[in-house]
Amino acid sequence: MSSIDLDTAWDLHPKVSVRPEPFGALLYHFGTRRLSFLKDRTLLSVVQGLAAAPTVRAACAAAGIDDHDLPRYHRALGVLADSSMVIERHQ
Amino acid sequence: MTLLQPATRPTRLVDLFEYGLDAPICLTWELTYACNLSCVHCLSSSGRRDPRELTTAEAKAVIDELQRMQVFYVNIGGGEPTVRPDFWELVDYATDHQVGVKFSTNGVKISPEVARRLTASDYVDVQISLDGATAEVNDHVRGPGSYDTALRAMQNLFDAGFEGFKISVVCTRQNICQLDEFKAIADRFKAQLRLTRLRPSGRGADVWDELHPLPEQQRELYDWLVLHGEEVLTGDSFFHLSAFGGALPGLNLCGAGRVVCLIDPIGDVYACPFAIHEEFLAGNVRSPGGFQTVWKTSELFLRLRNPQNGGACSSCAFFDSCKGGCMAAKFFTGLPIDGPDPECVQGYGEQLLKNRPQKGGLPQPSDDHSHRTTRAPRPVPITLSVRRVDRPPVSACAEDPLAGFEPVR
């Protein structure tokens, strides 16, 4: 699993579709035809907030994640990066 | 499939899915009952087109609805979906509306030109059906010439550069000894192997006794699946085998009405593709409110969206992993829904099967669209399983898979 730099800007992959569900969300990547499940609404907020946030750290803060929880979300985003669900955004 | 759970809750995804989703993850849509083949195990008893089938406009309205519900992709089947004159029009319409398409075909229309067209789209995936790694085994089930048709389609896809198309195999008593050969075919065409379970649905009910894997073959299949892990797809078909030991990759849950369902060619919505019977009919897409209303409010689906009642299986140590197996398999073999699967690997299903009613007492599929004039009159004269007792079982020999059989011509 890769680790993404919290101080870089990220976005959902343009071929990824997000469907909110009561428990979190489903993500589907049309390019890789893979499905991911987010079992947490907070992670969904982070993922949806990536595009508008200057950094991953800012997107996490905006979703209300404190320093204690940050490492877990950081890891989860690393897994999403591995499957190309999220990609780095270059200004 | 990845699963992300940053929170510390010990909730398993399968426990959440038992209560259903806002829209299906995996929707099967059979576009037509028409088919150029007459496979003996066809789970939708296909052959002839039904005059009530959805029109192009109605099918497009269903796609609009799937787009609104954010159903990411549909598994299109039939019948043979590509024989519908508007098939490509509907595929284009779906992909233009953010609904991906994976379609199952016997390959009859996959010409070099079609293969090139398919390769150009990210939103279309193809699944070629093949039920034998050799023509002998395949054609006995799927009909003369069907092996060559499938292989030609694969070659065309490969030549066009379509990587990762699927080769879909229904596992039977006759082909379980060919798993490595299937894998070799998939590797040769840069395709992915998908293995699914033979269900006693549709015409499959007529041949199930002769085609379904023997107990020792189930073990062979399980071990093979464990060995090959996520590189082989199973559509979550074999969760009843998890009672052999560890769970197989996938959700290991009966998704009927919870995460999957079927829309049949005339718009009827069933709980799953293997349950075309009024007992599992939830509604019709032509009714007011369309598919979404059926999915969200059908009494049947709401009933299915509860944790499964273990019934006779409650006290079994493996209930948590196998969940009593496949609802459709139980129903069409005449077993109680809240009891063991007919292919329960602990052997509980076998005991019940011995006491089940005669054929006449078993539930019949709602509709039969079989060709009236083909090679498959009933009862289906398949003789593959007539095994001579003086020979070893086929699964134990590495030779010709038909060794031991004397097909009657």
The gist of it:
The complex is a heterodimer of chains A (91) and B (409). Chain A is of the alpha+beta class. Chain A has three helices and five strands.
Task: Spell out the key features of this protein.
heterodimer; A: 91 residues; alpha+beta; Outer Surface Protein A, domain 3; three-stranded antiparallel sheet; 25% strand; globular; B: 409 residues; alpha/beta; TIM Barrel; nine-stranded mixed sheet; 10 strands; 12% strand; MftB (chain A); Mycofactocin biosynthesis chaperone MftB (chain A); iron (chain B); Mycofactocin maturase MftC (chain B); 4Fe-4S (chain B)
Describe this structure in words.
Chain A: InterPro entries: MftB. Chain A: This is Mycofactocin biosynthesis chaperone MftB. The complex is a heterodimer of chains A (91) and B (409). Chain A is an alpha+beta fold and 91 residues long. Chain A has a single domain (10-88), classed as Alpha-Beta Complex (Outer Surface Protein A, domain 3). Chain A has 3 helices and 5 strands. Chain A has helices spanning 41-49, 56-62, 70-82; strands at 10-12, 16-21, 24-29, 34-38, 86-88. In chain A, a hairpin with a 2-residue loop joins strand 2 (16-21) and strand 3. The model of chain A has no long low-confidence stretch (mean pLDDT 93). Chain B has 409 residues and is α/β, with parallel strands linked by helices. Chain B has one domain (15-307): Aldolase class I (TIM Barrel, Alpha-Beta Barrel), CATH 3.20.20. Chain B is built from 14 helices and 10 strands. Chain B has helices spanning 13-17, 56-68, 87-96, 112-119, 135-142, 146-160, 179-188, 204-211, 215-228, 290-297, 299-304, 319-322, 327-332, 348-354, and strands at 2-4, 26-32, 73-78, 100-105, 124-129, 166-171, 192-197, 260-263, 268-270, 281-284. In chain B, strands 7-6-5-4-3-2-8-9-10 form a 9-stranded mixed beta sheet. In chain B, helix 7 (179-188) links the parallel strand 6 and strand 7. In chain B, helix 4 (112-119) packs across helix 6 (146-160). Chain B is globular, with a radius of gyration of 20 Å. Chain A binds chain B through residues 15, 17, 19-23, 26, 28, 30-31, 33-40, 42-43, 69, 72-73, 75-76, 79-80, 83, and chain B through 1-7, 9, 11, 13, 16, 21-23, 25, 70, 72-73, 98, 100, 102, 122-123, 125.
